[in-house]
Amino acid sequence: MGAMPIPGTPSRAELVEHLVKTRITGEVATPRENNLSHYRKLANGDRHYWLGLELGDRWTDEQDVLAVMAERVGVNDDPEYRYGQDTIDPGLTIAALDRLAGRLRKAADGQQRVLFATGHPGGMLDVHRATAAALRTAGCEIVVIPDGLTTDEGYVMQFADVAMLEHGATLWHTHSGEPMKAILTAMERAGRPLPDLVVADHGWAGYAGQHGIDSVGYADSNDPALFLAEAEGTLQVAVPLDDHVVSPRYYDPLTAYLLAEAELD
């Protein structure tokens, strides 16, 4: 695996075991009541939960949202189950990683321009960084974002090939699509070609997909918008996982598996 700090590439079975043990999937830390609260707020039109997407009036019934989340994430499909533990099905996570690997392979084969971004720097930064490094090695152009961009929340910065939000010298957790909007708008104004692919999460992925760019993203069981977008075809792939477990190192085997499946290791 070169210089990446990953002890080998796990098999599918080993990765399932690891994902469940570290609670990236399986019985995750996000409680059922939090999931249902977010599904309800999305259905009620709270744009904070739309993650940069335009969902119109297509998802105004929270039961429809729950049905998609049960199918694509593996949360409990019983609307009467309102409190307690909820789940992410590791089989669905790995199936999504396989689809994501296919899109990364396409990017590598086409020497495409790829933009990486995260609203979850505490959890997902290194997954994105390692993927960007592998695609650069394969001949892709990793998009450098324009300088001097801001949103209401802070500065749009790029570290280790990954765009994120900085606020008060701190990397910022954000669900907003505004930072991605700032990047794409600035690129268009400068006459720069837009990315062929965006690899991201939260509103960074949602806004890019809404803007018509091939977009893939990671999302938690309480972030339904990206899975609705995948169901509608606005987002190419949404990978279900807990996006902030206790150690970012827990994602390393997932990254190793992804890059091996994409033949980028």
How would the blueprint of this fold be written?
Blueprint (H helix, E strand, L loop, with lengths): L11 H10 L4 E2 L4 H12 L18 H11 L14 E2 L1 H20 L3 E5 L3 H17 L3 E2 L6 E2 L4 E5 L2 E6 L2 E3 L5 H12 L7 E5 H9 L3 E6 L5 H8 L4 E4 L11 H10 L4
Parallel strand pairs: 3-4, 3-7, 3-9, 9-10, 10-11
Antiparallel strand pairs: 1-2, 5-6, 6-7, 7-8
Write a concise synopsis of the structure shown.
By secondary structure, the protein is an alpha/beta fold. The protein has 9 helices and 11 strands.
Task: Give a written overview of the molecule.
The relative contact order is 0.21. Mean pLDDT is about 95; it is low at about 1-5. The chain is about 40% helix and about 15% strand. It is built from nine helices and eleven strands. With about 260 residues, the chain is α/β, with parallel strands linked by helices. Helix 5 links the parallel strand 3 (about 115) and strand 4.
Q: Give me the secondary-structure category.
A: alpha/beta
Written as H for each helix and E for each strand, in order along the chain, the element string is HEHHEHEHEEEEEHEHEHEH
Straight-line distance between termini:
6 Å
CA-atom Rg in angstroms: 17 Å
Low-confidence stretches: 1-6
* Overall geometry: globular
Note the main sheet: 9 strands, mixed
Number of strands: 11
Q: Bin the helical content.
A: 40-55%
What average pLDDT do the residues reach?
95
Proportion of β residues? 15-25%
- Total of helices: 9
Question: Notable features of this structure?
Answer:
265 residues; alpha/beta; 9-stranded mixed sheet; two-stranded antiparallel ribbon; 9 helices; 11 strands; 16% strand; disordered N terminus
